[in-house]
Amino acid sequence: MPAxxxxxxxxxxxxRTLCVLRRGPGDPAFAVRGGxxxxxxxxxxxxxxxxxxxxxxxxxxxxxxWGPGADWLLxxxxxxxxxxxxxxxxxxxxxxxxxxxxxxxxxxxxxTGLVLESLIPSVLEQKxxxxxxxxxxxxxxxxxxxxxxxxxxxxxxxxxxxxxxLIPSWEWHRAGVDAKRSSTILRAVRVARRMEEAAxxxxxxxxxxxxxxxxxxxxxxxxxxxxxxxxxxxxxxxDLHLPKIIGYALTGRRGTTDEEMLDxxxxxxxxRHRAARLILLSGVTPPRRxxxxxxxxxxRL
Length: 301
Known about the structure:
globular; 12% strand; alpha+beta; 7 strands
């Protein structure tokens, strides 16, 4: 059981840094138990599981690994935890951003170095509610993933590319995934090696690589590369809620469009995703005027 310790270069918040990798409260590949954070994933070396614990008093993060991918994960632990990220590059231009950074000084942008791990659940989140996408991810991993290495049998590792390709159409349907999204995932896993190469590219080249696949647009690419690259400027465009939240937080006005959001974030060029992340952490959101969208279930059709 290999292990590694990482010492953050300043204030550090393990949970808020890595929570963006969690796909809903029942994510089979990510869990929090007490003060421990567990992550199971498929690496180039095979399945691996990480157990992470922040020792605030000692100023360090301790990690243990299991499985063929353990060494790969531990070798890249500092990158995962945000060592290559520099929050100081953002200059706060709005009070809400300044206050969010003051209250959450330990938040960094995680860099997984894995593409499909973030791409597939991002495709599942296209044009549906978060609850629908989380349910689909949970069911697909439970039925077609494999038990994660290590002592916690609740965790699952997502299928390898060929495993995704072998999922029959009725299983996608049972998980509530329509043909458009499942077809996009199948196109991506057929060129898995080309997709994973994006983890070693800059943001612009990685975006072009991902969006060359029909069904993967700027929204999906940004959601993926925010996690894969820890890209501070990968702002999500085309989201139903994000422009409205950012517009309300920065101006107090409702109904902000994507174009208006980009204008508001222009002073944060190079750091727009980080600025958006801080705004979301501020908790400033427009009051709800309508009920939530109902959760659909195409599996019943």
